[in-house]
Design brief:
There is one protein chain. The chain contains five helices and ten strands, in the order E-E-H-E-H-E-H-E-H-E-H-E-E-E-E. With about 190 residues, the chain is of the alpha/beta class. The chain has one domain (about 5-190): 3-Layer(aba) Sandwich (Rossmann fold), CATH 3.40.50. Strand 4, helix 3 (about 80-90) and strand 5 form a beta-alpha-beta unit. The longest helix is centred in the first third of the chain and has 15 residues, at about 30-45.
Length: about 190
């Protein structure tokens, strides 16, 4: 069965098709929702130039690749599912700079620990965990105990409308939330 295609919305790779699979246990963020997310992020950051991006539960990699297209310096993708990982590798294969992408094929909790031990910091962290598994809370809690968030970082979480997030996880404070159909996108930053 042929895969579905998503498109990069803006930037250097605008219009480029990304692969997905129908029926695969990944839910790629729709082009329209991704465009809304990046409009909000553009208002926050003004520019993506030089930004370091972490894409947790990356799936197709559409969010991290969109950030690279808009000028982000580097994206680290974490995706432990083998079929989704194969799609992700295919999707980043066109990016000319091999140092611009890292793919970690391990569970998110292990990746977060490893990145923390390496002393990594990110300006933008995406997470879109599988719905109904309570992973959003565990991941935000774990992130809040690390130094992975740069001082002005934004952490963006996609979650099912019935899976409400808390106002705060350690130093991560909710500052915005938008609903797109059955999906909610919640934005966190470091509290002072």
């Amino acid at each position: 069965m042929a895969g579905r295609f998503l498109r990069i919305i803006s930037g250097a790779y605008k219009g480029r098709k990304l692969h997905s699979y129908p029926g695969l246990s990944i839910r790629p963020t729709s082009d329209r929702t991704r465009e809304s997310i990046f409009n909000i992020l553009t208002a926050i950051f003004q520019s993506f130039a030089g930004k370091r991006v972490l894409d947790l539960y990356a799936g197709t990699g559409a969010l991290g690749i969109e950030a690279l297209s808009r000028g982000a310096q580097r994206a680290t993708f974490v995706e432990s599912g083998m079929p989704a990982g194969a799609v992700l590798r295919k999707n980043v294969s066109f990016i000319p700079d091999p140092d611009a992408c890292e793919i970690m094929g391990v569970p998110v909790s292990i990746a977060i620990g490893g990145l923390h031990r390496r002393g990594e910091q990110f300006d933008l962290i995406f997470m879109d965990p599988p719905y109904g598994k309570n992973l959003i809370h565990a991941t935000l809690e774990q992130l809040s105990t690390t130094s992975l968030c740069a001082p002005q970082a934004a952490v963006l979480c996609e979650h099912f409308v019935r899976d409400a997030v808390s106002q705060q996880y350690g130093r991560l404070q909710l500052f915005d939330s938008r609903r797109y159909g059955q999906t909610v996108v919640s934005f966190f930053s470091l509290s002072e």
